[in-house]
Amino acid sequence: MNQKKTAESPLPHPSQGGMDQGRMVSIPKIDHCLDSIQLDRLEQAFRAWAKQSPRTDIQLSRRRILVIFLLIRYTGAKLNEILAVDPLKRIDFNRQLVDLGNGDSETRSEPRTVRISTTLASELEQMFNDPPFRGFLEKQFNVDPGFVRRKFYERAQALGFPKKLGGPEMIRKARAVELMQRNMPMPAVQTMLGHSNMNLTSAYVSFSKDDIAQVTKLFIEREASRKTSARNSFFGKIQALQKGDIQTRVLLTTAGGDTIESVITNSSVERLSLKESRLIMAEVKAPLVILYSGEKEPECTAENRFSGVVEQINVGLINTEYIVRIKDGTSLCALVSTHGAQWLGLGVGDPVWAAFSCFSVVLNVA
């Protein structure tokens, strides 16, 4: 069902047709790049490798490679973009921004700054404040791209990963897939990767560049902290507030054009300072998502209903987890009893509706 893309291909758009028509993004098969767990293992391998040598000069050289890996891993930038960065001048630690300069005309990447988490910015600042390492970087990274690639390949192979999956271009691709699988809005992913031909649909008209930057900031910090157990998240903008005597109905539109409805108390509206056009994140826990098999929209009282396709099934002794890909590329996780799963009879690739009540939606602000 998914279309295979090269590492530097623009992210797919619905206008490309095929079975992905009507979807905002087609996520490559997971065996075409490292998944989040494998990326984390590779990161830890780089960290351990950077500390192994007793020689100071080798440690400094390895730490340089570690920094290059971390920047590609978390910005999704290309190797040549990172090597062109002066790490002592073009990383704003206070604002958590990496200035990637003038872009790349050959691969259609635009001039941009990319956000990193507060945690990573603090770590890099601490590393660069070490006098020997700071002196080592006085002439920027000053390293041959081929040498960097070899070191990436070596670390990947040491973990038993295919060599090609450890290359800088594939790490960039894996980061894009990771962000999309975690439901970062498509225009934010495209902006982060520097694609110039985003072809934003009318669903994005109300999302300005500043909005996308704010959504990216919220997502990156949430990803780094991982303080929530909710598996399903939507980033959007409040379109309407309908206040009642006790509770308020909140309607938000996601960057993919979907509408999410939530009902919260009036005191929560005041505490969160909610108003129309404010950016917000909506979360729903997996056990609160109800699945209906088939293509016909279910006749139910759940206000939030999305058609999609079953992408993955993880069967457990007590519960079964379903990953459903809806039309804009967002993934939803639903958790049902294994007995209920047998009754549903769903398989990978089957059409399905995912639904949840407005009372199941928790709203968070930046």
Q: Helix tally?
A: 11
Shape: globular
CATH topology-level name of the largest domain: hpI Integrase, Chain A
Number of domains: 3
Helix percent reads 25-40%
CATH H-level homologous superfamily name of the largest domain: Intergrase catalytic core
Overall pLDDT: 83
Unreliable runs? 1-31, 198-205
Instruction: Give the helices and strands as they follow along the chain.
Output: HHHEEEHHHHHHEEEHEEEEEHEE
Tell me the name of the CATH class of the largest domain: Mainly Alpha
* Spatial order of the strands forming the largest sheet: 6-5-4-7-13
Largest sheet: 5 strands, antiparallel
Describe the structure.
By secondary structure, the chain is of the alpha+beta class. The chain folds into 3 domains: 33-181, Orthogonal Bundle (hpI Integrase, Chain A); 232-283, OB fold (Dihydrolipoamide Acetyltransferase, E2P); 286-357, RNA polymerase II/Efflux pump adaptor protein, barrel-sandwich hybrid domain (OB fold (Dihydrolipoamide Acetyltransferase, E2P)). 34% of the residues lie in helices and 22% in strands. It has 11 helices and 13 strands. It has helices at residues 36-52, 56-75, 79-83, 118-128, 131-136, 145-158, 168-181, 186-193, 209-225, 266-272, 338-344; strands at 91-92, 97-99, 113-115, 232-243, 247-254, 259-265, 279-284, 290-293, 304-315, 319-326, 331-337, 351-356, 362-364. The strands form 3 sheets. The chain has a 5-stranded antiparallel beta sheet with strand order 6-5-4-7-13. A 5-stranded antiparallel beta sheet has the order 8-12-9-10-11. Strands 1-2-3 form a 3-stranded antiparallel beta sheet. Helix 1 packs antiparallel against helix 2, helix 2 (56-75) crosses helix 7 and helix 8 crosses helix 9 (209-225). Mean pLDDT is 83; it is low at 1-31 and 198-205.
